[in-house]
Amino acid sequence: MAPVTDARARIDELVEELNEHSYRYHVLDAPIIDDAGYDALFRELQALEAEHAEYVREDSPTQRVGEKVGGQFPPITHRSPMLSLANARSLDELVGWQLRNLRLLGLGTADGDHAAESVQAGLTYVTEPKIDGLAMSLTYERGTFVRAVTRGDGVTGEDVTHNIRTIRTIPMRLRAPEGGTPIPDHVEVRGEVFLSRSGFEQLNEQRIADGLPVFMNPRNAAAGSIRQLDPALAATRPLGFFAYSLAGGGAEAQLGSHSASMAWLGEVGFRTSPDHQVHDTIDEVAARCAEWERRRPSLDFDIDGVVVKVDDNDVQEELGVVGRDPRWAIAFKFAPTTATTKLISIEIAVGRTGSITPYANMEPVEVGGVMVRQANLHNAYDIERKDIRAGDVVIVQRAGDVIPQVVGPVVDARDGTERRYEVPTECPSCGTPVQYEADEAILRCPNARCPERNLRLMEHFAGRTAMDIDGLGEKAVRRFSAEGLVGRIPDIYRVEWEQIAALERYGETSARNLVAAIETSKQQTLDRLLFGLGIRHVGEQVAVDLARRFRSLDALLEATVEEIAAVPGVGQVIAESVHAWAQDDANRELVRDLQAVGVRTELADDELAGPATEGPLVGKSVVITGTLGTMSRTEAGNLVERNGGRVAGSVSGTTDFLVAGDKAGSKLAKAEQLGTTVLTERALYEIVGEDVPEGALG
Ligand code: IVH
Q: Which CATH number fits domain 4-63: 1.10.287.610, 1.10.357.10, 3.90.226.10, 3.30.930.10?
């Protein structure tokens, strides 16, 4: 056995070293040791501590997960009250807030130019994301973590130290700050405990698997975790902490501003509000709020707004507090992204490939700023797993441009009248027995002549990004189908204007225009035709890749799986899907019929020539997503290719740039995750050396 003093010294050394590694890993995201190396040191410490219980330090990493606590959490009165925030729901209210503050401070006039006034007044602001978690107060005595207390009613909270200790981003000992300001004897740090979205989703998956009710949102899940009696359980929940204020220790007075406090908190070992920023004008603040709202869907933590704080401590003091709300801070709130509503019935949709998908028909509810009535329920397995029943009160979620989702039922709201979903045995449109496809949870209607399936397909075929037949939208297709004018795609080309003009609400002109648009579409390029045929897994870009390689539909019909899979941008799954489509008799008949009615099924020599061999984007792989301000995605793709770049359909490790427009969804999230360079529309123009036209985004 090691001499006692050596053991103590080694314990000290190990604690310091392990805490440093933990800080580098959890706070800085920059580990310098692998998991196995960490574990070895940790086990050494555990063994030494087992022999020398008297040397176990409070800030030892072995002490993060302690004993269970008794049945309640002791109440603790906060040294200074934990305040809440007044809300601004629009940019106008934000400006109003600044004008009121300027008036109170005796600066500027109430009706002047608000941006100029704040510069002139020297008022600076800090913006931070408003994390949707739980406010927590952490106390450090002589640099060591001693207590964590919930906000409670703002005056008194509950002692949840045992669980907060398990959060690895919270230092058990403060680090020595670099710049002069020493650590006061008593430090109180306030911030938000939260659960990441990915952590939340995993947790809910686990709960579904265990037959437990799902948590409504990450906030509730975090709250539930913090109120666990057993810290071992809390330790399994991937909670995080962002510090957003320093209270009651004297350090903040010395630091002089909120931004300086945040910098100090970073130095002593905390993660502070991510991407907080200092601004000189309220217009800059407003722009930043809009930016956070755009970023919101791609973040891995829920935010419900942006907190705006006056930076200077003296100005904060002068503005003071009304009731519970400081005048010097305000929350710019976003629309909530979850809501509850009643699920009236589970209906079934037939897709253009024959897919049979259940969807929720719900009482209308506003989520994320839009009214939602329907949500995809994916498949029977998902419905059963989540135990969603017709008549349930359900939690609905919608973030950014993401399609509404049913997170799960509110089990407590059930009264016994709810009905379980019954898997259909036949297609609701044509009555054909439905089939499961190999390896798939998806049911399909196998009938190539199924009316609903063809209706969906025709709608897609005529759509703007496919054959672009103006005037042939969902309504018109349904109407023509009901009148017996069209059943399958080739029928579109057989409709005569007199037949349309005979329908109510159609005049001769609109009928002639529509038939002319149909006629024009016969000359669309092969990629659009391919995309319009609705082949599974063939998106716009894959259609371009296929058209470019095979140059005619006939050539594609004869291609082998290997030949298709060899096309750049086309993988095995796509190749098999295209091949299976091409081998299907009904599809071959469809192609023959299209050719018979005069639809062009090959490329002209000069079409889809491919990327130029020189230009600023040679060798670069570019993905385009979202809605751009001055051009369609196809046009942007042409611009990229004219300048030597290659356009790809999905973001991967080899993507050089993602050009992201408005409502960029999962591709932007993927790019941020992979660290891919994201370009605005403006930046794309600049890179290729073209003048930036009015209306370009960014
Ligand atoms: S500051 C005096 N900063 O929002 C200011 N709060 O409605 C007090 N919150 O209870 C809070 N992110 O739970 C502040 N960056 C942030 C925040 C934040 C989230 C929460 C916090 C607070 C509530 C106020």
A: 1.10.287.610
DSSP 8-class letter at 25: I
Report the C-alpha gap between 122 and 107 in whole angstroms: 10
Of the residues 151, 276, 307, 309, which should be mutated to test ligand 1's pocket, given the most ligand atoms within 8 Å of the CB? 307
- As to burial, measured by CB atoms within 10 angstroms (0-12 exposed, 13-18 middle, 19+ buried), residue 668 is buried
Q: What is the 3-state secondary structure (H, E, C) of 484-539?
A: CCCCCHHHHCCCCHHHHHCCCCCCHHHHHHHHHHHHHHCCCCHHHHHHHCCCCCCC
Instruction: Report residue 561: phi and psi, to 5°.
Output: -55, -40
- Taking the CA of residue 132 as reference, the ligand 1 atom at the shortest distance is 19
**Could you give the maximum distance between any two Cα atoms of the chain, in Å?**
103
Phi, psi of 398 (to 5 degrees): -150, 125
| pTM summary value | 0.66
d(CA 645, CA 614): 9
Which residues belong to the active site?
130
How many whole angstroms from 245 Cα to the centroid of ligand 1?
9
CA of 82, closest atom in ligand 1: 8
**451-521 CATH:** 1.10.150.20
Nearest C-alpha to atom 3 of ligand 1 is from which residue? 244
Question: How is domain 621-687 classified at the CATH fold level?
Answer: Rossmann fold (3.40.50)
Per-residue pLDDT tens digits for 123-176: 899 999 999 999 999 999 999 999 999 999 999 999 999 999 999 999 999 998
Rounded to the nearest angstrom, the distance between the alpha carbon of 279 and the centre of ligand 1 is 19
Of 601, 424, 429, the C-alpha closest to 523 is: 601
* Assigned fold of 338-437: OB fold (Dihydrolipoamide Acetyltransferase, E2P) (2.40.50)
Per-residue pLDDT of 680-697, as tens digits, reads 999 999 999 999 999 898
451-521 and 526-596 share one CATH topology?
yes
Q: Is 507 exposed, middle or buried (0-12, 13-18, 19+ CB in 10 A)?
A: exposed
Q: Under CATH, to which class is 125-333 assigned?
A: alpha beta
